[in-house]
What we know:
The structure holds two protein chains of two kinds.
Chain A: H1 11-41, H2 47-50, H3 56-91, H4 96-111, H5 114-124, H6 134-159, H7 163-171, H8 176-206, H9 218-226, H10 229-232, H11 236-267
Helix pairs in contact in A: 3-4, 3-6, 3-9, 4-6, 5-6, 6-8, 7-8, 8-11, 9-11
Chain B: H1 2-6, H2 8-40, H3 45-59, H4 63-73, H5 84-110, H6 113-121, H7 126-156, H8 171-177, H9 182-211
Helix pairs in contact in B: 2-3, 2-5, 2-7, 3-5, 4-5, 5-7, 6-7, 7-9, 8-9
Amino acid sequence: xxxxxxxxxxxxxxxxxxxxxxxxxxxxxxxxxxxxxxxxxxxxxxxxxxxxxxxxxxxxxxxxxxxxxxxxxxxxxxxxxxxxxxxxxxxxxxxxxxxxxxxxxxxxxxxxxxxxxxxxxxxxxxxxxxxxxxxxxxxxxxxxxxxxxxxxxxxxxxxxxxxxxxxxxxxxxxxxxxxxxxxxxxxxxxxxxxxxxxxxxxxxxxxxxxxxxxxxxxxxxxxxxxxxxxxxxxxxxxxxxxxxxxxxxxxxxxxxxxxxxxxxxxxxxxxxxxxxxxxxxxxxx
Amino acid sequence: xxxxxxxxxxxxxxxxxxxxxxxxxxxxxxxxxxxxxxxxxxxxxxxxxxxxxxxxxxxxxxxxxxxxxxxxxxxxxxxxxxxxxxxxxxxxxxxxxxxxxxxxxxxxxxxxxxxxxxxxxxxxxxxxxxxxxxxxxxxxxxxxxxxxxxxxxxxxxxxxxxxxxxxxxxxxxxxxxxxxxxxxxxxxxxxxxxxxxxxxxxxxxxxxxxxxxxx
Lengths: 285, 215
């Protein structure tokens, strides 16, 4: 927290801050109240519109939808980590003929929007006679995009280690593979763990893009149940609140894990501290 | 190649739409994001709380969900009628603003404490200090990460193709209606994005080298 930007408030400033706080709270409350009033005025929480919660089949389909989202996330995360590790190793290679193509591939996959990749796998490839399921298309796209970003993260992590680490390892007579696996990678992984996990949060959020190619994940489930005008009178508001809460909960869980690991790292003196701000492209969106 | 040359006007028109959507959302998200960052470092705890809440919620929500909310759910509230294009601009701006806010805030944190202390000693108010002393300096260290946020926004505009907002993501639909080769068409779209993003990435690296301040 950048408390340095202002003095410790005195009595006058305290009074002023209180007035501003009251105004701020009033403004926010007015906004919330207005939205709440619209919710009630348009009858979004009527019994009929909340009735979907009571159906066992819908509850089961919700669990299934969460399962689909999570399995796409798990498969995508594992493949992306593997892809990232391989391409980071390739980009750090001593041979230019390995380094150059790896760099080109990573840069290209980072530049193509995920949606276009998913369209390519789901709508494009059937033209060439290759038919993929929506799940496979989502997982492959997630692997290529997040794998490329992770490759950059791994590479940045290894490059950010003090030079003395690899020099000492080479001086001990280790080969390049040994230097990497025994000395550099373990340290880089620890230092970059929070960044890696926040990239996994991005991956989890990006599974929702599967919505665009009819992958039956959480968001698609939400629009299906929420759009049901016949049985529930389009309860999309209440359904979307539930869906958003689930997504936010899952992401916060991961973010909490990242925080926990970062705190543990800070206590651990064996970890070399890398400033994540040193790596500009690490702002995950 | 014929897929591109036969439909060159379609490609140019829809990529133009993408750039328009990007430009409007970029400006709006930069303004809102900077304002949120100011809230997050302000001396009033309530303002900080509001800023933090906004960023936490929006950063952990998928963009597609924000789109679904503004396109499908928001009209049911009957507040103000907006068409899908406006809904897309609002979704992209609100979502990206949370990331802009974090970038600006981390930039503010890189400005040395002495700068803020000196301006306080000169009697500047919080707003004067932020606007005249801290933010102009923060801006330099912010440019590279802000460029990546903007690149992400440019790529995120394609999410709008699921919501009847015409931009480069819809080239596939038009091509498949005309019976063209969708596979090649999508490769051209991907190449288009690579061409749009690469200069930005390059500019980011140049800025980073030139603008990095030795501290």
